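input
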Amino acid sequence: MAIANCDDKNAKALQFIEDMTQNTDSVQKRVLAEILSQNAKTEYLKRFELNAATDRDTFKSKVPVVSYDDLKHDIQRIANGDRSPILCAHPISEFLTSSGTSAGERKLMPTIRQEMDRRQLLYSLLMPVMNQYVPDLDKGKALLFLFIKAETKTPSGLVARPVLTSLYKSDQFKNRPYDPFNVYTSPDEAILCPDSFQSMYTQMLCGLIMRHQVLRVGAVFASGLLRAIRFLQLNWAELAHDISTGTLNPKISDLAIKQRMTQILTPNPELADFIVKECSGENWDRIITRIWPNTKYLDVIVTGAMAQYIPTLDYYSGGLPKACTMYASSECYFGLNLNPICTPSDVSYTIMPNMGYFEFLPHEEDLSSSSSSSTLSRDSLDLADLELGKSYELIVTTYSGLCRYRVGDILQVTGFHNTAPHFSFVRRKNVLLSIDSDKTDEAELQNAVENASVLLREFKTSVAEYTSFADTKSIPGHYVIYWEHLSLFFL
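output
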């Protein structure tokens, strides 16, 4: 990375990445020692009689590798109001809800307030890396469609919500210092509005008003950006009316949004006419670059199951680069993509060794036939000991109290930055269809859909969504795949 060509702030961020990745093993030793020292008196670690040991060998020989089901009872005790240090010495501040499920229920991942600062540190590294590949990102704004989702409270009163909702509602986000590389067209009032229609409408409206300032367009996932484009297809006439008259759609009733928009919305008939001209026709090819002509790239995740949306994104954007910048989950924030402007098939992430303690199980040597049974293992590999081309299952130990937790992601080593490996995301473990002895995993299903969808191109359509199930009512059994088609010409 060209640290010498950066301003002081970006140079400091890039140097931090270099320091962490040049000393991967020593950082990992320090992180594990900190976690074990912090949580030595917790009920969970006391069960395994570590006797204040903080070394890796003792930790691996005494503490088992576990899944969510192994921790579910302890997590439920915390959710029900037990304030004793069960998993973590620091008080649990909230639960982050995982997209995965256990026995049909959401997984509740405990977290602590201090973890938010660690996540913010990782976020602060993203734009310094991106600026090495896309210059002058401080000269405009980002149109990112960001939303909060519903949250609940556990019997103890602790909130349970998705990790991004936690981020957007945090003091760190709401009181973030000005950063010219991270200026959004969407006002916080719109991002924090719980009504999805009002939030999307306002964010799209602001994005249209500031269209010449937009340098990157995106959402967290590719599917989210396509939902935004579909929203524009359905609501462009009302949006254009608001811009023409300088008045806000009466469907927007959120008081915070209404007050904020009085500072942004003014009559602009010329812009309104442009939007009508671009959106009223049938051809939506390159609509992103037609409306936001200065867009340099799309900021979206297109790995894993999101890969199905790449052809449609290419249609709407004219093939703009798609930057997958970060690898994170509700259990832990892991790392970042040090080469963000690459083709989607080449996306790899570098796990930052300061984010948690990471172990890896060779994928071919699964610890057990059941992902819900705990297992002792000293045979896991450390972050600095992995081999190029090999696949591994990720295990994490966090400051928030997860110890040797099986995240469920299968990763493949694609290279190294200093001593830190790059990983491509292969698939989620145990996500598959099965009939008798035949098993089809997520990656194989995705490949099948991609190959078959090639046949749709001559009909000017693509796969917008798909789902599947194993039909065993007939003999022989077979897989049924449902496709939702998206016409590349909006009618």
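quick obs: The chain is about 35% helix and 25% strand.
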